[in-house]
Structure formats: C-alpha cells, structure tokens
Amino acid sequence: MLDVRLIRDQPDVVRRGLATKGGADLIPELIELDAERRRLVRESEDLKALRNKASEAIGQAKRRGEDASAEQARMREVGERIKTLDAELKSVDERLEALALQLPNLPHPSVPEGKNEDDNVEVRHWSEPRTFAFPPKPHEEVGAALGLDMERAARIAKARFAVLWGGMARLERALAQLMLDLHTREHGYTEIWVPHLVNGETMLKTGQLPKFEEQLFKTVEADEGRPLYLIPTSEVALTALHAGDMKGIYRQHQFDKVELVKLATPARAYEELESMVANAETVLKRLEIPFRVVERCTGDLGFSAAKGYDIEVWLPGQGRYREISSCSNYDAFGGRRADIRFRPDGGGRPEYCATLNGSGLAVGRTVMAVIENYQEADGSVTIPQALRPYMHGLTRLTPR
C-alpha cells in the first residue's frame, strides 16, 4: 500500500505516477476521507481529554460533598458524542482502507514511460539463436509426438491444462530440480514448500485482492463460510509467511514455477532486484538457450511493482522472444500492505521491508523453450547437457 502521508503531502506526484497504472482518479476522494479521519480523531481525542479532566474534577467535588450531577450529565452527553465519533471513524477507516487497497504502487523514477509491453526497453540479450537446417516447429507440434497431451487434459479438466507422458514428465521434473539446486546451492535461497490454497486475508495482503478477484480460482465452501483461494504463484504464500512479522502451454491454468522471493531493506532493494534477475538468467545460460532482458515500462508494470524486468526466451518455432520470467521490486509498498517490518541496525523505529519476487523460472515455459531450441529434423529433442544428470542418462527424447 502507498503511504497515506505521501498522498496527502504530494498528491500531484502520486497522480503523475499512477497516470499509466490506473487509480489516479481515486486520489481526491482518498484525500477528502483522510482529512475527515483526522478531523474525527482530533475531536474524539479532545473530548476524551475533556472527559478525563472532568472525571477528576467530579471525583474531587464528591469528596468535598458538593453536587456534581450537572457536570455528570454533561459528561454523559460527551460520552455519547465520543461513541458517535468512534463509529464514524470506524466507517471512514473502512472506506479509506478500501480505497487504498485499490491504488497500485508508484513506479520508480528510473522506469521508462510507456503504455504497454510494446514500450518495454531491451536491456541486454545473451547468445544468438540457433540456425536450423529445417523449418523449426512450435513446441505443441514437436511435443505431441513426445508425450505432451493437451487433448486428454482438456477432457479430464478443461482447456489450458496439459498431461505429460514418459520422458516429457521427466523433463519437467528435471528442469524443476535443476532450478532448485542452482538457486539453493549457488544463489543462497532457502527451499520452502507452501500450501496451494490460502485464505482471503493472505490474498489481500499480497495484492491479489480485491483487484484480481474475478480471475482467481476459489473454493465454493470452506470453514466458517470463508472461501480459500488457489494461489496464482507461490509468491503469495511465501510473502505472507512474514506478514505481521518484525523478524499451447504458454498460458496454463496449472503450472509449476521455481519462485524467488526476497525481503530487503528499501536501501538495498534495487541492488537485490538486479541480483535476482541475474539468478534467473543463470538457468537459461546453463541450458544454453538464447534470451533477452527487457525493463518493463510504466504501463506494463504490475499492480504492486515499483520496477521490474522480464526475461524473454527465444522460441524458434514462433520466431520471437516470449516471457519466461518476471522479476519485480515492490519496495515498501509490499511490506506496508502485508505489515512486514524490520528494526534498523543501531535501533530506531521499525520500518517497512521491501518485498521482491521473480520466477526462476516458470517450469512449463522452460520445457517449451527446450523443446523448440533443441528439436531435430526427425522430431526428436536433444537433452541439454545441464539436464542430463537429472534424466538418468537419457540424452534424447524420441517420438513415442
């Protein structure tokens, strides 16, 4: 969430920052509610101070045997007014929070301006695409003969699911294991297994609700009538672990990712973002698959992101680069929303953490990239050297 003090003190800066991300039209109402809230708080606190002072005076009068009934009657009226103010304050707080939850994060000043992904800026690219002696096919054509079964997946579930048979299933598992080993053994991440279903509060704290309510899968019935939501990414559960803690198959409904999540001080967050992108790049370098890194423009930044990069892998069957990882720094927006704080070295007041998230990588999309980049004219697919230790000696996938 954005700091309400920033909105109050620099509304024009916030409006400009949200111009391409949406939400700027909510600023006037939010400022008005914030002013109303502060007025209610002042009046309530003044009346409570008056009541405390009067209570002491009433007690002294009674001890002297004086009649204090008139003052007591006045204080009862004050008490009723305080109850009314507290009720109004609760209502204003709820409306203020509902508005604040709809505001996306401000882009960092270094983020290039733009309307959509067409305005993203290439930062670098690695390796050159392979030259094929035959017309390369898209992954769904190559994969169909190797064990990629979309037809039966649609029959037992619905479209945009996949069943993997034999070597294809092993390839997916091998890629996930390579990524886990790389990131935990060489890059310093901790491996964590999390629930795939979480409650609404968790989705709210990690920026999935209320904005993406209609796009989420959720249970119809749950404990005490509250639904559980299927997480769109493990970032949701991984980030929420620290909440309240001061210490073809390109787009699928179901897929695996090796997710990278970091908590950092805001001062180190952008350095950590660059490190996270480099960690994700290493996977494709080990697999020897060409890719490029683009910086997302203001119009293509996610709801919570202040700055972000996409890693796009080369797909010869499509003749284009496609996103395989997205790495973002949410800055203190993420920590404030989930109430994740740290105490600075040397003491001082707790501050909100920066939260960062990235894919390292999306496993299904990496399978797709391997199939297209390592396909052969006979329909087989060569297994990259980095994956062979995980494939039990298998060096090639051949049509079933």
Characterize the structure shown.
The chain is an alpha+beta fold and 400 residues long. 42% of the residues lie in helices and 16% in strands. The chain contains 12 helices and 14 strands. The strands form 5 sheets. It has a 6-stranded antiparallel β-sheet. A two-stranded antiparallel sheet has the order 2-3. A two-stranded antiparallel sheet has the order 4-5. Strand 8 (307-315) and strand 9 (320-330) form a beta hairpin. It is elongated, with a radius of gyration of 28 Å. The two termini are 52 Å apart. The model has no long low-confidence stretch (mean pLDDT 92).
Helix/strand order: HHHHEHEHEHEHEHEHEEEHEEEHEE
Instruction: Return Rg in Å.
Output: 28 Å
CATH superfamily of the largest domain: Bira Bifunctional Protein, Domain 2
Tell me about the largest β-sheet.
Answer: 6 strands, antiparallel
> In terms of per-residue confidence, which ranges show pLDDT below 50 for 5 or more consecutive residues?
none
The helix tally amounts to: 12
CATH class of the largest domain: Alpha Beta
The total number of structural domains is: 2
Report helical residue fraction. 40-55%
- Tell me the total number of β-strands: 14
- Give the strand content: 15-25%
